[in-house]
Amino acid sequence: MKTKKEFDLFDRPSVKKKLWILLYLTCALTVVPEFFTHREPHFGIDGIFGFYAILGFVSCALLILVSKLLGFFLKVEEDYYDK
């Protein structure tokens, strides 16, 4: 008996392209308000153009890296509960 391959919505090339466009658009929209706001820098470095967008990206990337590192150390054997 053949098993039907599950075809996920995100496997479609047209959907992938739309998601990439949505990602780029979202990233651009986070920087646009920088043109219209005036901020008083409290620490000096936060006066850089696009600082908060960069901070969000770096924070997210670090969160992913730390979770991968924790997963490496907290991983248990596949038959851990069968013992």
Write the layout of secondary structure elements.
Blueprint: H1 13-31, H2 51-74
Question: Please, could you describe this protein's structure?
Answer:
With 83 residues, the protein is mainly α. The protein has one domain. The protein is 52% helix and 0% strand. It contains 2 helices and no strands. It has helices at 13-31, 51-74. The radius of gyration is 21 Å and the shape is flat. The mean pLDDT is 85.
Question: Would you kindly provide a brief summary of this structure?
Answer:
With 83 residues, this protein is mostly helical. The protein is 52% helix and 0% strand.
Shape: flat
Provide the succession of SSEs.
HH
Number of helices: 2
Cα-based radius of gyration, to the nearest Å: 21 Å
What structural class do helix, strand and pairing data support?
Answer: mainly alpha
Strand content: under 5%
pLDDT under 50 segments (min length 5)?
none
Let me know the number of strands. 0
**Number of domain units:** 1
Give the helix level as a range of percent: 40-55%
What is the end-to-end distance?
35 Å
Q: For the residues shown, what is the average pLDDT?
A: 85
Largest sheet: none
